[in-house]
Amino acid sequence: MTDEVFEDVIDDAAVKKSKPAVNNKKSVILNENTLGELEKLIGTWVGEGVNVIAVPVESSTGKFRVIAQDFDETLTFAPLADGVANRKIGETQIIAGLHYEQVVNDKQGNNLHFENGLWLVLETTDGVRRIVRQTSVPHGNVFIAGGQVIGTFPVSPKIDDTESSLPPEFADLPIDSGYLKPYGDAQAANTVDIIHPNTNLSKHNDGIDIEETTVYSLTTENNKDDPFSFGSISNIPFFDAPEKGSKKDINTFIETPKLSSIFWVNTVKAEDGSSSFELQYTQNTTLKFFKSPKNPNDLIEWPHIDVATLKKQP
């Protein structure tokens, strides 16, 4: 080990050990930023939501089914005690952030989804303040989504009620017959809107007094012209028994090329003048499976949408 590398190892240990303060020529702290608007997320949030997802059934016929269901959710955020060390050669950033855990159950109490990870604040030397969501999902996905705190506004959230759970290339087809009939069947079996899930957030907000909202926007898409668009998704493959006479033992898995989400923390004023807090979110994960009839070299994009309204617990 060279002296230079050895010094970097020592520096790394110093950063991990206690306070984010390093005094040496090899590692410097660029900033020790604060949580800023991420502080509003701290606490335990409990409430309900709606999940809509299409899943393939038979590839040869393009048959699919739609799962749409209500769920109960608990979402918890807690601050990281000493921040996270973000390193490159000769420099160390100490990043403020939150650890979070999400647990989603169906109405019978069966677990539907679990994930955990970090929300981090990146305040770089160019003065741009970004946020990052790092997530691990036990059934085989990890992702990094970059974004920003859009701001805090003295109004109710502006929610896009037009966002659709239908595949964009089939959005003009009817859902009561033909290829999209599984969506029509799922809608008929539900009392909430599963074609435009965001309307469930807007309907909840109708009739309540929201004094202000703080908006957080995140995406895994990379756009070199947008400093707030960066990230990635990675999936484990689906392993199965080898086919007879073949060494192949990995099946093709559904592609998940991108994810985007918007979170709102709302301050709600009651008739007696007291205030409470609600967290709402909409998340759209794009799944790709089955060849596209309009573009045979690509796959159909299927929106997987989750929305929820959660109340902050005392």
Short account of what is shown:
The chain has a single domain, classed as Calycin beta-barrel core domain (Lipocalin, Beta Barrel).
Topology summary:
Layout: H1 3-17, E1 28-32, E2 43-58, E3 63-79, E4 84-88, E5 91-95, E6 97-105, E7 111-123, E8 129-137, E9 141-153, H2 181-188, H3 199-205, E10 209-219, E11 231-235, E12 238-239, E13 250-251, E14 255-269, E15 275-291, E16 299-312
Parallel strand pairs: 1-5
Antiparallel strand pairs: 2-3, 2-16, 3-6, 4-5, 6-7, 7-8, 8-9, 9-10, 9-11, 10-14, 12-13, 14-15, 15-16
Salient structural properties:
314 residues, mainly beta, Lipocalin, ten-stranded antiparallel β-barrel, 3 helices, disordered N terminus
Q: Mind explaining what this structure looks like?
A:
The chain is mostly beta strands and 314 residues long. It has a single domain, classed as Calycin beta-barrel core domain (Lipocalin). It is 10% helix and 50% strand. It has helices spanning 3-17, 181-188, 199-205; strands at residues 28-32, 43-58, 63-79, 84-88, 91-95, 97-105, 111-123, 129-137, 141-153, 209-219, 231-235, 238-239, 250-251, 255-269, 275-291, 299-312. The chain has a 10-stranded antiparallel barrel with strand order 2-3-6-7-8-9-10-14-15-16. Residues 1-31 and 245-251 have low confidence and may be disordered.
